[in-house]
Design goal:
The strands form 3 sheets. This protein has a 5-stranded mixed β-sheet. It is globular. The chain has 367 residues and is α+β, with helices and mostly antiparallel strands. It contains 14 helices and 11 strands. The chain folds into 2 domains: 119 residues, BirA Bifunctional Protein, domain 2, CATH 3.30.930; 231 residues, BirA Bifunctional Protein, domain 2 (2-Layer Sandwich), CATH 3.30.930. A hairpin with an 8-residue loop joins strand 10 and strand 11.
Amino acid sequence: MPVERRPLERVRGTQDHQTRQASSLDAMRTKCESAFGLHGFRRVDVPVLEPAELHLRKSGLEIISKLYSFHDLGGRRICLRPELTASMVRAAIAQPSPRLPDKMFATGPVFRYERPSRGRFRQFMQTGVEVLGAEGVLADAEIIALAATTLDSIGITKYTVTIGNVGILGELLTHLGLTGRRRALLLESLEDARRHGIEAVRTRFASLDPDVIHPDETSQIHGTAVTSDLSSASEDALARLVAQTSAGDLGRRTLEDVTTRLAARMHADTARAAVDRALAFIDELGAVRGDPDTALDAARALLLTHGLDPKPLDQLSETITLLDAFGVQRERVQIDLGLSRGLQYYTGMVFEVDHEALGAEKQLCGG
């Protein structure tokens, strides 16, 4: 008796593009790439397969948590690219004699393990442009203006350009001495606070770094993993203070044990205070949004309160002025200092272009 075979369905979160839709997508791609070429960008093609480490280093939790990765037959950890920027930068660095500045673009499918929904897929097309070796507001403004004029060229005009600057939070974290994993978590928290509110950020932070939000004395004090971050001179001074005040009554503990415990507590208290201040600043920073003039005035007042350098705001103001010169309509531009895009390789200006008619999936592009 013959066995009936069920037809194989496509993988969830992917699409079949029939002739008409495929032709429309090809036409859109051609218009985009023509606009890039007119602005002096050269085309590159980069592999769909990349070393997973390329994205694990800098992509941020938002993308890392959705990475398609596996070990190949040679035991190497490989991934399907989740975006194009990292691959384009890798390709540029790999050139024997790279010429800088370098303006390039790439187009192709990217893959993320999303929850499939309207406008959200696990495989989708992305086109990206990069300016390497050029810094400053002119390069920032050129990229934003290119995004706007490209959308205009394909007939999309009712959009809003939202601009932020992750460097503002980065400066505060440097001022507070927050580095490494905590710094990375706090930078990612800027986008989480924008989407879900500061209390959701506190809850997430507590789950990832419980000692600094809900300290556990045992984890802070016992074990060699605890470090005080005190200088040798400070540790010596603390040891002398303990010796003078204990009058030899240390029980079974040594002077070194007691000094280590106190140093660890001092370090934990300092870290908690720094993280609390950073989270409060993230909450305040996320409230700074609106038209450029109003938002920049509010931002200057905020930075003055916290004793921070207003240079990032001066750069934002210059960027807005350059966008005027590039022909980007001022009424389309908004400032949102809670915008960070959740990627660790962003250190300064960030932007997104949205179309409100698209609802929850309103973002057209960003960088």
